[in-house]
Amino acid sequence: MSKTRAVIPGSFDPITYGHLDIIERSADRFDEIHVCVLKNSSKGGTFDSEERMNLIRGSVEHLSNVKVHHFNGLLVDFCNQVGAKTIIRGLRAVSDFEYELRLTSMNKKLNSNVETMYMMTSANYSFISSSIVKEVAAYKADISAFVPPNVEKALKEKFNV
Ligand code: PNS
């Protein structure tokens, strides 16, 4: 029987417990999960792609079926490259819906064989985003509830706090 593979794409600048929640729950349901750092043209960057990948790797060490990549191109092309027909995205609130609908519709136009599935982020993490965590980290707030310890360390170093 062929393996079930899914791609979890994102900016991951940096990975948060919200992302990790989606990765862990997906890893329990698919044989292989490919987490991929991609470029979101409407976002700037705090960490470079290599740093983002290393922070993800350091956060998913306990998940043996998760691989971490970086791809400089279209998400659907990455899906083809790893042989995945499923994209998984986390949904935090209704406010995410419009953006996700546009993303999914475009990906469907680009490659109709790739299906996007949505998973509701666990309630504990529904308010977390990388940008809001970075904002409070820059003001020396305690971010240990929002990001894994390796990411907390990296953010403290980045913001010299
Ligand atoms: O974490 P994000 O920023 O919401 O993730 C968005 C991301 C990176 C998945 C999206 O911007 C993306 O897929 N970028 C790669 C380029 C691409 O395929 N664009 C077409 C879909 S809009």
From TrEMBL:
Q: Which Pfam families match?
A: CTP_transf_like (PF01467)
Catalyses which reaction(s): (R)-4'-phosphopantetheine + ATP + H(+) = 3'-dephospho-CoA + diphosphate
Answer yes or no on keyword Translocase. no
What pathway annotation does it carry?
A: Cofactor biosynthesis; coenzyme A biosynthesis; CoA from (R)-pantothenate: step 4/5
Q: Which GO terms describe its molecular function?
A: ATP binding; pantetheine-phosphate adenylyltransferase activity
Spell out the GO cellular component terms annotated for this protein, sorted alphabetically and separated by semicolons.
cytoplasm
UniProt: substrate binding residues: S11, K43, L75, R89
Stored SUPFAM superfamilies = Nucleotidylyl transferase (SSF52374)
Gene Ontology biological-process entries: coenzyme A biosynthetic process
Tell me which cofactor or cofactors this protein depends on: Mg(2+)
Please state the protein's primary subcellular location: cytoplasm
Q: Tell me which InterPro entries the record gives.
A: Cyt_trans-like, PPAT, Rossmann-like_a/b/a_fold
Arranged from A to Z, the UniProt key words for this protein are: ATP-binding, Coenzyme A biosynthesis, Cytoplasm, Magnesium, Nucleotide-binding, Nucleotidyltransferase, Transferase
Q: Which domain of life is it from?
A: Bacteria
Give site residues, Transition state stabilizer: H19
Can you tell me which residues bind ATP?
Answer: S11, F12, H19, G90, L91, R92, E100, Y125, S126, F127, I128, S129, S130, S131
Residue intervals of the Cytidyltransferase-like domain: 8-135
Task: List the EC numbers from the record.
Answer: 2.7.7.3
Where is this gene product found?
Cytoplasm
Q: Which family does it belong to?
A: Belongs to the bacterial CoaD family.
Q: What does this protein do?
A: Reversibly transfers an adenylyl group from ATP to 4'-phosphopantetheine, yielding dephospho-CoA (dPCoA) and pyrophosphate.
Subunit structure as annotated in this protein's UniProt entry: Homohexamer.
Q: What is this protein called?
A: Phosphopantetheine adenylyltransferase
Q: What is the lineage of its organism?
A: Bacteria, Bacillati, Bacillota, Bacilli, Bacillales
